[in-house]
Amino acid sequence: NAGVTQTPKFRILKIGQSMTLQCTQDMNHNYMYWYRQDPGMGLKLIYYSVGAGITDKGEVPNGYNVSRSTTEDFPLRLELAAPSQTSVYFCASRWGRGSSTDTQYFGPGTRLTVL
Amino acid sequence: AQSVSQHNHHVILSEAASLELGCNYSYGGTVNLFWYVQYPGQHLQLLLKYFSGDPLVKGIKGFEAEFIKSKFSFNLRKPSVQWSDTAEYFCAVISSGGGADGLTFGKGTHLIIQP
Questions:
Q1: Which A residues 43-102 touch B at CB under 8 Å?
Q2: More confident residue, B100 or B23
Q3: How far apart are CA B33 and CA B105, in angstroms?
Q4: B49 chain-A contacts, CB cut-off 8 A
Q5: Is the CB of A19 inside 8 Å of chain B's CB atoms?
Q6: Cis peptide leading into residue A108 (ω within 30°)
């Protein structure tokens, strides 16, 4: 198993540009998550999904959109990039299905800089 | 809403010293607790987790943590640290109600081990 994979690893955007961060997991997990990590601030939840076709907002959803058309993929879209979105983005997944004891597995992250 | 507080943002120790990283959480119900580690340039990995039973849990690489319900604490310990333990450590909590909630993270503790 590759686990959770993310592309790209690094990206520099200009203000107002758009991009999609890709996330794929091969563990047949039901639940998937997007977090952002800012220096000294820990990780904050952006969006999550409990299965294909079902998504919901987390703590900091503004400026982002997600979709979940398959169990494996959970892309995160930035429509109009702003400097405040400079961060490291982590995708994660877990089995879910009524259990909160299962481990969340994290991808390697995407480091995004908006100039 | 849940919150997690990690007491020390930066800790510097010498090899073979003992380690204790503090973590307190705030939540009205029952929770599951996690410690994740992020080595330089790598993604988050699970160190250990607590969800029920013995409040002293053992994880990988010689780490352990003790859940003290009355103090809402889940401190991480290691009797003798190594240079390779240099990393960022995150305490995280999730409601044990079985929902799809993401993890709530503390701000992290940056641990540096000097040889």
A1: 43-45, 48, 50, 56, 58, 90, 92, 96, 98-101
A2: B23
A3: 10
A4: 101, 103
A5: no
A6: no
Q: How far is CA A9 from CA A12, A56, B48, B54, in A?
A: 11, 25, 27, 40
Distance CA B15, CA B9 (A): 19
Which of B44, B107, B108 lies closest to A90 in CB terms?
B44
CA distance B96 to B86: 31
* Distances from the Cα of B64 to the Cα of A44, A46, B55, angstroms: 25, 30, 10
pLDDT confidence bin for A16, thresholds 50/70/90: very high
A28-66, pLDDT tens digit by residue?
Answer: 999 999 999 998 888 999 999 999 999 999 999 999 999
Interface of B with A in 23-52 (CB under 8 A): 32, 34, 36, 42-46, 49, 51
User: Which residue shows structure tokens 């758009």?
Assistant: A18
The token duo for A40 is 């000294």
Residue listed under structure tokens 């009355």: B70
CB A108 to CB B42 under 8 A? yes
What's the confidence (pLDDT) of residue B14?
Answer: 97
pLDDT band at B100 (very low <50, low <70, confident <90, very high): confident
| Residue B83 pLDDT greater than 80, yes or no | yes
